Amino acid sequence: MSERLRRLPYENLGTTEGSSPMGGVFFDTPRFANSVPFFRFQRFGHGEVRTDSDHKLVVVMVGLPARGKSYIVKKLKRYLSWLGFQTKIFNVGDRRRLAGSANEYETAGEDLQRVGRKDSGEAPCSGCSSPGADAQTTECAQCETRHSSVFFDPDNKKARQIREQVALEVFEDLLRWLQAGGQIAIHDATNSTIERRHALISRLKCETDVNLMFVESICTDRDIINRNIKLKTHSPDYVGIDPEVAEADFRARLRNYERAYRSVGAAEEKLDVQYCKIIDVGKKVIAYNIQGFLESQVVFYLMNMNLEPRVIYITRHGESEDNAAGRIGGDASLSANGSKYARALARFIDRRRLEFAVEVEEYNRLVAQTICSTASSTPGTCSEAEGAASPGSAADALRLEQSLLQRRVQPGFEVWTSMLKRTMETAEFFDAQRYRIKNIRSLNEIYAGKCEGMTYQEIARKFPDEFEARQLDKFYYRYPGIGGESYADVVMRLQQVIVELERIRHSVLLVTHRAMARTLLAYLMDIPTTHMPSMELPLGYIYACEPRPFGNFLRVWRYDPLRDDFEEIDAPSALKIRYPQVSLPTATSAPPLPSPAETAYSAKN
User: Which long-range contacts (CB under 8 A, 24 or more apart) does 21-26 make?
Assistant: First the structure.
């Protein structure tokens, strides 16, 4: 092995969750590359400069159902994982559904499953008998473990005991995961009572180097709450249940929760517990006693969320002269093919901008009609603790319909490029009167140091040790020379870009480079950082990520130079991760050049 490889901290190799398949088999990757956040390392070299990220963090969610906790949790986990922290969500609802039969704990009211079958004329789920079966029919295991609103009645002592027990069991699982090497664990539950939260605080006192932080989601916007309730009727608790019956039961569940709900506040402040309140999806943020590095990362990110409909488009620049020659880095201008792509890109975004406005309008109309159709028969709900108001009504639904139909995609549309010529030239065909064009240095391509302007064949010949080291660990490998970067450095560089993408309330197109596109898509689509450098992102593709309640929805278009236009293709097949065979150079052989797909598009692509 080369001297450079011996100097890398590859001791104590161990298979981790992020191990990468190379040549069709799995091999052990350096443990530091998968379990140690790169915040801990110096800017140049893997030094042992530590921060208080050595501490672990438990994020405990608080809030009523249908207040966006799951939305916040998934986004937060995705962001922290992208930053390099081992992060995991522990959902109490999933465990609660396995706690036991709903009939065993529901002491009042009709059984939800029978009501659902009676009103809908359908079986509660595919595992149950057909409609109209006699009372002796045994329900499937899924229906037996479904819990109706009575299970959440604070006066139902037996059910309350089960709920508390399940929440603490999940918390114990969470702590065991942290002890095994995890860094940030998220306890995803309502945790809506002072007693529950104090029990979690007391349990955590026994742990060392583990910090606690409450994150409470409060929503006073009845329009958002009503839309969230509609989404909740499709949750595992209501599989196969008539939607109207499911909604009525869920609203009854909310009323039960509201009776016992106490917001985070004075009780936690007496114990100096850190907390953050997110009100109306980031319109207002209250932070108390935030001290740790990890906690500050959480608060900073949560302050920049919004629910505005928008699309984040990502594309590489048009083909450059260096692309045609197989050279990496540099600051070359576009080739003739690249200029042709730039013109087609401007036309495509003009068209998609109008199409998306129509899609948003149609979606809003459907949401308003759905709420209108049920508002008169199902009362709204909003807790006193959240400062909300009166129950929903037909007038509320009509007001919502009017506000949604009046709302359009905001006229602002931005185009972001790097400071390199090939991206700025790709954006020069956009009308400056209709688009705000920004040149951002953080979007520059990964800097290859001494290897700038070279082909991969030249790198293998002049720097064989570097070529070998890069193939062994592309994420943490840093190009030699002053300013040489790794993908870990790129993540740090793009952190502010990511926060800005979460903050803005209109669509944006990023014209950037391959390493930047890989890093951005890894964040948006929750792709592990160990897979990031192996994503195939050829020239001539547009990746469109639309933020939605349960994650980002991806669409992909491919440029056809013969038609001089774009065609939509299957997104999962387009977002491929390529694991090439490890091909180390020898004195008599040279490694192959990059495939044409890496440098240029063709009619076959």
Answer: 21/579, 22/579, 22/580, 22/581, 22/582, 23/579, 23/581, 23/582, 24/579
> Taking a C-beta distance cutoff of 8 angstroms, is the pair 102, 146 a contact?
yes
Name the catalytic one among 125, 128, 143, 219: 219
Cβ count within 10 A of residue 534: 18
The helices-and-strands tally (H runs, E runs) of the chain is 23, 15
DSSP string, 370-399: HHHHHHTTS-----TTTT--PPP-HHHHHH
Tell me whether residue 219 is one of the annotated catalytic residues.
Answer: yes
Global pTM value: 0.78
Side-chain half-sphere CA neighbours of 78 within 13 A: 23
Which helix or strand (DSSP H or E) is residue 416 part of?
A: strand 414-417
44-71, pLDDT tens digit by residue? Answer: 333 333 444 568 999 999 999 999 998 9
**Torsion sign (Cα): 295, 231, 554, 510:** negative
- Per-residue b or e along 226-242, where b marks 16 or more CB atoms closer than 10 Å to that residue's CB: bbbbbebbeeebbebbb
Residue 517 and residue 76: Cα distance in Å, rounded? 21
Residue 533 token pair: 């450098």
Residues shown for the chain: 605
State how far the Cα of 255 lies from the Cα of 149, in Å rounded to an integer: 9
Give the containing element (helix H, strand E) for 510. Answer: strand 508-512
Catalytic (active site) residue 143: no
Mean pLDDT along residues 522-544? 94
Question: Does 513 qualify as catalytic in the annotation?
Answer: yes
pLDDT of residue 397: 54
SS3 (DSSP) at 287: strand
Q: What is the pLDDT of residue 137?
A: 36
Q: Is the CB of residue 399 less than 8 Å from the CB of residue 226?
A: no
Picking from 90, 255, 96, 63, the residue whose alpha carbon sits closest to that of residue 172 is 90
Give 91's pLDDT tier (boundaries 50, 70, 90): very high
Cα 546 to chain center, whole Å? 11
Instruction: Quote the CA–CA distance of 464 and 243 in Å, as a whole number.
Output: 64
* pLDDT in the model for residue 99: 66
3-state secondary structure string across 294-328: HHHHHHHHHCCCCCCCCCEEEEECCCEHHHHHCEC
Q: Considering 106, 237, 445, 485, which one is annotated as catalytic?
A: 445
How many whole angstroms separate alpha carbon 538 and alpha carbon 533? 13
> How many Cβ atoms from other residues are within 10 Å of residue 568's Cβ?
12
Secondary structure class of 494 (helix, strand, coil): helix
Instruction: Determine the pLDDT at residue 572.
Output: 87
Coil, strand or helix at 418: coil
Say which of 139, 153, 188, 546 is annotated catalytic: 188
**Which residue of the set 46, 187, 317, 513 is catalytic?**
513
CB contact at 8 A, 520 and 513: no
Is residue 164 part of the annotated active site? The answer reads no
Q: 507 — phi, psi (to 5°)?
A: -75, 160
Position 409: which residue type? Answer: V
pLDDT bracket for residue 530 (50, 70, 90): confident
> Which residues make beta-bridge pairs with 73?
none
